[in-house]
Design goal:
Distance between the termini: 55 Å
Protein name: RmlC-like cupin domain-containing protein
Number of strands: 26
Radius of gyration: 19 Å
GO molecular function: metal ion binding
Family: Belongs to the pirin family.
Cofactor: Fe cation
Helix content: under 10%
Shape: globular
Strand content: over 45%
Number of helices: 1
Keywords: Iron, Metal-binding
Strand order of the largest sheet: 1-22-19-24-17-14-13
Length: 301
């Protein structure tokens, strides 16, 4: 099959608006995975489109049993954890964080001089059961490392993870196989994106509006696909007034139960109980949690 042609587009199973809500300290998010509308869409646990202005953010908090993928669309975000890891994600960069057996960290957007909100996406991905006890790690993907393909003068695609129009991404950024494709489509443009067979997939519209088949999707809509078909297709009719910006995400389905309690993700209630007790007792991966405080979160304390 040509990577620029779709024999059978996937069927849309649902389309809905991501509603804005509060999260962290002073932050606002539009959550489109991890709500009653779309929960535990394996391997995906959560997708937040976050907006942070002023002295606000996501101060010290734990994780266990999942990976997070942060894609920064505007601004800068500082991060710090109890292993001593620190750094900054700049506009257009991504960070893949594996919580594994346990980590405690802080993610603090930097206030912008022009007062504009720091904006990005954070995707939570489940870890296979056999990898839930791995040591925490980070993998950064800088903007300059992301391949770009332009199948026409009206379409630009950033191949963050996976493959599009024969262009492959940087490999081995996450334990759980995930594709992430960022596309901007001008009025009069169209694109086809093949997806791995059997993977779950959705598309989130960051800006503008587009057609997926005959279905119209607008800004902040999540388009959820069935597993039928071999890919997805989008177009922006010539009469539309602005570009559409859409992120397509697909992931390998994990054959395991999902039990989640806040930032802890396991395969049973017993494992969740262990995670809570380990965090409270500073044990089994959380030994450094009791005495650790981040420096970057003090700005809002």
């Amino acid at each position: 099959m040509s990577l620029s042609a779709i024999a059978k587009p996937r069927t849309i199973s649902k389309l809905f608006l991501a509603i804005e809500q509060s999260e962290g300290v002073g932050a606002r998010v539009r959550r489109s995975v991890g709500t009653a509308r779309l929960r535990n869409f394996s391997p995906f646990l959560m997708l937040d489109h976050f907006f942070v202005s002023g002295k606000a953010g996501f101060p010290d908090h734990p994780h266990r049993g999942q990976e997070t993928i942060t894609y920064l669309l505007h601004g800068q975000v500082d991060h710090e954890d109890f292993t001593g890891s620190t750094g900054t994600i700049d506009e257009g960069d991504l960070q893949f964080m594996t919580a594994g057996r346990g980590i405690m960290h802080a993610e603090m957007p930097r206030p912008q001089k022009d007062g504009s909100p720091v904006m990005g996406l954070q995707l939570w991905v489940d870890l296979p059961e056999k990898l839930k006890d791995v040591e925490p790690r980070y993998r950064d993907l800088r903007k300059v490392e992301i391949p770009i393909v332009k199948p026409s003068d009206k379409v630009e695609i950033k191949v963050i993870s996976g493959e599009s129009y024969g262009v492959k991404s940087v490999q081995d950024l996450a334990y759980t196989p995930v594709w992430m494709i960022d596309a901007t489509i001008k009025p009069g443009g169209s694109m086809s994106q093949p997806l791995p067979e059997g993977w779950n997939a959705f598309a989130y519209v960051l800006d503008g509006e587009l057609l997926c088949g005959t279905t119209k999707a607008q800004q902040y809509n999540n388009i959820v696909f069935d597993r039928d078909g071999d890919g997805v297709e989008f177009c922006v009719p010539a009469e539309y007034e602005k570009d559409a910006h859409v992120v397509v995400v697909a992931g390998q389905v994990l054959d395991q139960q999902v039990v989640q309690y806040g930032p802890f993700v396991a395969v049973s209630k017993e494992k969740i109980y262990e995670a809570v007790m380990d965090f409270q007792n500073a044990a089994n991966g959380f030994e450094r949690a009791r005495s650790w405080e981040s420096k970057i979160a003090k700005m809002i304390r």
